[in-house]
């Protein structure tokens, strides 16, 4: 009887060990093949759905950028609206002009005083640009598509394979004309080489802009697609759109004002040298500048950049799906994904991290309100003085 029990126990242990070994082997095989090539993707494959057949996990996350979730000072909730022929959207984000009317005074005479809404995910970037009321009050150029659509294939098409020539042609077109050719919001091909899947830069304005930045650092003839590290590219691909910019000359060429560096003082100095202004304030007559969305510049001067942390580390953190380690393509606020986005480096509780961030944001928002109140009051005084 004793031998039978020993045999049974040994058999169970052996079975468990074999099952464990097969599981490990299976996961290793799964990890060794991060994707299965179902379809051919080329430098002309613009539709992310086709890429998604080879990369279903990433594509599924990409589709989730439709989610509208609020953080304390960012994000948005879905606001229902009745579709019209001019604007077929059934859901939008809340108007910031309604929640903070001071902005109308702040931007008087500028298109943002007409329509400015809370942010939504990448899935909405093209439609929200197409149907904003700003399109009704100013003739926007095709340049606007650079940060609101997948443009790489368009650049190649308009430039007969030369993205710089296509870039110049798209810039100079009226937005209403250029929009006819844009089919998708930012897509896989804008950041990935279809042959190697390596990250790459496809926006000419960033290629030129980062070359200027590197020149101020003593690096001549910088070629971002050849000289940047992989970790740098995990921020540079985001910096193709999340930047300060302006439209140069009558051809409306997209330029990142980085010739003197990335700090706000450098950019202001550049604008003063070139004499550029975004608009003239209708109440005061003052020439005005509006920072667009300088997240890349802000990140580049912060502690995370100095510590070697990339944009993607926080907004697209790695996650495990089975045996695979992949970047989360549901690009979103780290505050909605604290465990993966923050706790890999900060070994404290989610609640404490959230409170730390909100404490900094509370102070910033308080100071912002003080400044905005003072500016609006000053505008009122100037308006009275001019009458």
Q: What is the approximate shape? A: globular
How are strands sequenced across the largest beta sheet?
1-2
Nearest-integer average pLDDT? 93
H/I helix tally:
19
- Structurally, the number of domains stands at 2
What is the radius of gyration computed over CA atoms, rounded to a whole number of angstroms?
25 Å
Would you write up a description of this structure?
It is a single chain. This protein is mainly alpha-helical and 387 residues long. It has 2 domains: 1-33; 37-335, Flavocytochrome C3, Chain A (Flavocytochrome C3, Chain A, domain 2, Orthogonal Bundle). It is 46% helix and 6% strand. It has 19 helices and 8 strands. The protein has helices spanning 2-32, 48-54, 56-63, 96-99, 102-106, 125-131, 134-137, 152-158, 163-172, 175-178, 204-216, 224-227, 230-236, 264-274, 295-300, 303-306, 311-315, 338-341, 350-386, and strands at 79-80, 91-92, 246-248, 253-255, 279-280, 287-288, 318-321, 324-327. A two-stranded antiparallel sheet has the order 1-2. Strands 3-4 form a two-stranded antiparallel ribbon. The longest helix is centred in the C-terminal third of the chain and has 37 residues, at 350-386. The protein is globular. The N and C termini lie far apart (108 Å). The model has no long low-confidence stretch (mean pLDDT 93).
Please tag this protein with its features.
387 residues, mainly alpha, Flavocytochrome C3, Chain A, domain 2, two-stranded antiparallel ribbon, two-stranded antiparallel sheet, 19 helices, globular
